[in-house]
Amino acid sequence: MCKSKTREAQVFLRQLKKLDSMITNKLIEKEQWKALALGTTAQSGGERVQSSGSQQKMADAVNRYIDIEKEIDACVDRLVDTKKDVIHVIEQLDATEYDLLHKVYVQYITLEDVAEIYEKSYSWATSAHGRALVNVQRILDSRSNRKQIESKA
Fold it and tell me: For the whole model, what pTM was predicted?
């Protein structure tokens, strides 16, 4: 199976990293909204300045903070569900392929480091990774075929 045929398997496995990155970025954004909400206050004392704009900015920041918390919760739920799905799929592989893919796609360990852990060459790691992707693709294809059969029944 050529590299383009394992593309779906790679996309399937890489979705964990993307979701994890989305959560990290949303957490940073949440802190920015919090700082904006806490830093935006109406002036007190001295001449009265129109403060409704400042209060509106604070209210908008608080609302955005609450919205982003909900988005983070939804992303975390998706990450947990997706992680379960990915792990369920790779658990169907042989022990070495499972362990290699778990290290790369769940633990985010590089292939170079995986090769070192196994005391093998980088070439071995890339070859084993390629074989594991072919097998993941077979599992995904089989699962897709089952779903199509079930939907027709």
Answer: 0.78
